[in-house]
Amino acid sequence: MRSISLPLIAAGLLLAASLPALAQPKADPDWPCIQRKAPEIDLAQVWNGPDPATAGKWTDDQEAATVAQRIASRRTPMDEVDVVLELFAREAGPEANTRLLRVMAGTYEIINTERGRIMHGITRYARGQQRLADRIREEGEKLSQARANAVMTNVPAESAETKTLDEQLTWDARIFDERARSLTYVCEMPVLLEQRAYEIGQRIAARMKGG
Length: 211
Prior knowledge:
By secondary structure, this protein is mainly alpha-helical.
């Protein structure tokens, strides 16, 4: 395995040290994303219509609940969301406004729940990265010490011990770098879910009488 260079080690440790600095808010050092950590989506940011709670429990309306489940899913493209909502509103007739409010309530709750699970996963992911960063630091220190000892004892610097340490450090640094790149994508998921909730809210509002 190719030996890892000291500049690469330094870069890896610098990246590791930067993780907590990116956390927002600073009160939660386990949050690694640049985006602000908000435990829940603010309903007012994704919906400007009547209070969905006034329509009763959305889970009591089976058809509305089914529609909410379908359109909240990220697998459902927005064009299909339009078709589903149009058909539902047409069949709901005079009760369209009330039942669309239930769909909004269900969609909001489903997306919020999924977003919460993802955010919890991001926190666990970041903790794993921090543990790996700590291990990289320890491995770098052990490798430097082993090489220093070799110089002091006038033995070859690249012994079996230093080779093993170097290979492990190279491997862990590569994993850390790959996970850091993945984290950039994962951090976008809560934002994308909030955007989806807003887009669906706009489509629901457009189909309410007087909306």
